[in-house]
Amino acid sequence: MITVTVTHPALPAFVQDRVDTFHEHRTRSRWGGRHILRGRRTPGAHSTVVDSNDYLCLSGDKRITDAVTEALKHMRGSRLASGVLLYEAHPQTALEQEMARRLGATAGVLCQSGWDANLGLLQAVAGPETPVYVDLLGHMSLWAGAKAADAPLRPFRHNNMEHLRRRIEEHGPGVIAVDALYSVCGSLAPLRELCAIAEESGSVLIVDESHSLGTHGPAGAGLTAQTGLVERVHFRTASLSKAYAARAGFIAGADARFMEYFKMTSQPAVFSSTLLPTDLAQISATLDVIRDDEWRRTRLHEVSATVRGELTALGYDLRGSDSHIVSLQTGPDEHVIRIRDTLEEHDVFASVFCPPATPNNRTQLRLSLHCELDDQDVRRITDACRTVRPLFKKHYPQGLTTRS
């Protein structure tokens, strides 16, 4: 038996210092030697798990896995190159057209991820002279896209349309970038008001539908479609790693000529390869399942309304959540660890959101509800949240309403 010893060069001090600082100030000092994202227990077969973005529970669906399996049989000879080089009859191009049609758009383009979709789109529409107005709770990929475009960032208060108007009056028309459904708190964007402001000011409106595509709208076409605003929103983007349980991003728009421009201008588009045939098969099959399985959306909305109502009655401040994302505001990192551990003791497993996904001392515990939660799961969530409620009152009263 041959033993191979692998050695690596030592990191320079300017890198090692950053690593050491992270472990000293966060792992050892703030987190008590534990990792904030790792609890003491693991879920069992009958645990209530609400830490996944698979809101419609499509991962493992036989109709989808069968399509992926069939695609694997025909992988040989597949053309893997930059999306710029695809011809019109290529399966990815055909899927882009079908997805656009399902969303009520004229054209669309698939990207490697939702991050690439937002970063590439902002890079393609903005520049050094174009202010980008991003909601303070907008996904980080929107902020990164503005930075990639070297555009001036002009954030506005969450869902505060008067503040957005004042910002545009001060800095001029530009790009307005928002989430349709905000992943940090579950609130919905006021899309009608945003459309009006974009039209009045001559601005471009980008709506990230990552957490609402599949879960809202006719046949899962998203919140923009649900509110009848498809013809008033310039671009819709989405990560397909949420309700679609896939790995890709998508941009929907009204101008096919823009999409050709995008493919030749966006760096993520130019310098990334096409999706794999198995990715295309998965997304195509998922499109059909999302269209056909209306019961998934119905159940998701029923469960979400019940959980929100129960937690509101307990005195929790849900920060305007009107969706399947319900966040408990826990405050400093050390508090969320205790609350998370207590929930897990009651067999409820949620997600910790901490910096850099949240501001400092604004850590939260997110319940990502899904369509396969039964009434027993809902009771377990409610009972567990009732149990941990005194911890909020003691350590972080901002996580409760004034009624508490």
Q: Report the CATH superfamily of the largest domain.
A: Type I PLP-dependent aspartate aminotransferase-like (Major domain)
CATH class of the largest domain: Alpha Beta
| Low-pLDDT segments, ≥5 res | none
- The gross shape turns out to be globular
How would you state the average pLDDT, rounded?
93
Radius of gyration: 22 Å
Strand order of the largest sheet: 2-7-6-5-4-3
CATH topology of the largest domain: Aspartate Aminotransferase, domain 2
Distance between the termini: 67 Å
String of helices and strands? HEHHEHEHHEHEHEEHHHHEHEEEH
Describe the sheet with the most strands. 6 strands, mixed
Question: What is the oligomeric state here?
Answer: single chain
Overall structural class, as computed from helix and strand content, comes to: alpha/beta
What's the number of structural domains? 2
Please count the beta strands (DSSP E, at least 2 residues each).
Answer: 11
Specify the helix fraction band. 40-55%
Strand content: 5-15%
CATH architecture of the largest domain: 3-Layer(aba) Sandwich
Number of helices: 14
Description:
The mean pLDDT is about 95. Helices cover about 45% and strands about 10% of the residues. It has helices spanning about 15-30, 60-70, 90-100, 115-125, 140-150, 160-170, 190-200, 225, 255-265, 265-270, 275-290, 295-315, 335-345, 375-395, and strands at about 50, 105-110, 130-135, 175-180, 205-210, 235-240, 250-255, 325-330, 350, 350-355, 365-370. By secondary structure, it is an alpha/beta fold. Helix 7 links the parallel strand 4 and strand 5. It has 2 domains: about 40-55 and about 295-400, Aspartate Aminotransferase, domain 1 (Alpha-Beta Complex), CATH 3.90.1150.10; about 60-290, 3-Layer(aba) Sandwich (Aspartate Aminotransferase, domain 2). A 6-stranded mixed sheet has the order 2-7-6-5-4-3, with helices on both faces. Strands 8-11-10 form a 3-stranded antiparallel sheet. A two-stranded parallel sheet has the order 1-9.
